[in-house]
């Protein structure tokens, strides 16, 4: 990508750099920027035109939906440090129905993992996958097949292991006793929800693969739905991916049908929160991930486990990076990355 590096002496958007400088003694940033990657040309024909007004008071126009488009691109924003302590940058990949905001400022207004790892010496890329956030949608069903799926608050409350009883009235919601998710900020968190498609995995994988080829060598930190994409990219480009941190990944290639030998030199860390045994859905996911991890180790790779409850750390939800102890967990991940020789 030919980024022109220069020293930037201004506040970083969206990551509260000035607050970080006050607390850490300064973060020297060389470059802040963004780009889109991936995408394919698409031409639509034969769709009807219609009259419409774009803004009150403006004249009507004829909208013609036919023509050339690009679809399937993804977006990333990067912050390159002047003197990073890590040997490669860190790419942060989000989960289903979410975007890169997962790693930015937390719903309670405190710094997220993006800021944590910048402080810890990493240049950081935070992306929005195909169809999410600033990656943009495409027409459906003409380009994206089917229609988008929207997540309700109830689904987020229950699926993310925040509480078992949801109510529209926040005072009537029952959170899991001991949860570390900031309950008072749950409604703020749900503003991050972004509609998703269940039919775009191939497009998304293609974009992620191109992203890895362009932005790496790198370390990938990935959450939930993104796990399968990260593992697939690592299988294709093991020379580009120096480590993968999988935060409660919900999917992975089938270890019985996949040659895991290419991953022998790609150390991996699985991170799991609390209450999983109480949710059959999550219990099943973790068991499948443990099969993959065991197969990786059997193939000569390195699949490590950070099971937080087993370490005496209780109360973490599926959104570990937003919980009140998120800095503690990013610190444990940083410690593991140090043992891999990737950061000093």
How would you explain this protein's 3D organization?
The two termini are 26 Å apart. This protein has one domain (17-339): Rossmann fold, CATH 3.40.50.1820. Strand 5, helix 2 and strand 6 form a beta-alpha-beta unit. It has an eight-stranded mixed β-sheet with strand order 1-4-6-5-9-10-11-12, sandwiched between helices. Strands 2-3 form a two-stranded antiparallel ribbon. A two-stranded antiparallel sheet has the order 7-8. The chain has helices at 17-24, 113-119, 153-159, 186-190, 201-215, 226-236, 280-298, 326-339; strands at residues 29-44, 50-52, 61-63, 67-81, 90-93, 124-128, 163-165, 174-175, 218-223, 241-247, 268-272, 303-307. The model is unreliable at 1-25 (pLDDT under 50). The protein is α/β, with parallel strands linked by helices and 344 residues long.
In short:
It comes from Advenella kashmirensis (strain DSM 17095 / LMG 22695 / WT001) (Tetrathiobacter kashmirensis). By secondary structure, this protein is an alpha/beta fold.
């Amino acid at each position: 990508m030919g980024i022109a590096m220069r020293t930037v002496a201004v506040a970083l958007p969206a990551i509260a750099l000035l607050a970080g400088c006050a607390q850490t003694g300064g973060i020297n940033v060389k470059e802040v920027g963004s780009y889109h990657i991936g995408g394919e040309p698409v031409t639509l024909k034969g769709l009807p035109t219609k009259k419409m007004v774009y803004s009150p008071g403006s004249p009507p126009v004829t909208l013609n939906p036919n023509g050339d488009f690009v679809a399937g691109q993804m977006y990333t924003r990067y912050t390159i440090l002047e003197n990073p302590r890590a040997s490669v940058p860190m790419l942060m990949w989000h989960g289903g129905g979410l975007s890169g905001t997962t790693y930015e400022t937390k719903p309670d207004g405190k710094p997220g993992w993006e800021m944590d790892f910048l402080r810890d010496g990493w240049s950081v890329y935070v992306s929005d996958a195909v169809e999410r956030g600033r990656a943009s949608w495409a027409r459906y069903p003409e380009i994206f097949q089917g229609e988008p799926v929207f997540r309700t608050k109830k689904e987020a409350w229950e699926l993310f292991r925040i509480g078992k009883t949801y109510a529209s009235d926040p005072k009537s919601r029952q959170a899991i006793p001991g949860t570390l998710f900031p309950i008072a900020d749950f409604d703020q968190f749900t503003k991050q929800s972004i509609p998703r498609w269940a039919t775009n995995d191939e497009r998304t994988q293609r974009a992620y693969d191109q992203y890895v080829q362009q932005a790496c060598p790198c370390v990938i930190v990935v959450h939930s739905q993104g796990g399968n994409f990260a593992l697939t990219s690592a299988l294709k480009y093991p020379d580009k991916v120096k480590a993968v941190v999988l935060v409660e990944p919900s999917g992975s290639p089938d270890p019985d049908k996949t040659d895991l030998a290419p991953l022998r030199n790609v150390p991996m860390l699985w991170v799991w929160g609390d209450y999983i045994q109480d949710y059959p859905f999550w219990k099943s996911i973790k068991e499948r991930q443990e099969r993959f991890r065991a197969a990786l180790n059997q193939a000569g790779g390195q699949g490590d486990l950070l099971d937080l409850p087993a370490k005496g750390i209780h109360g973490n939800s599926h959104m570990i990076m937003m919980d009140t102890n998120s800095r503690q967990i990013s610190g444990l991940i940083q410690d593991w990355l140090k043992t891999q020789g990737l950061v000093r």
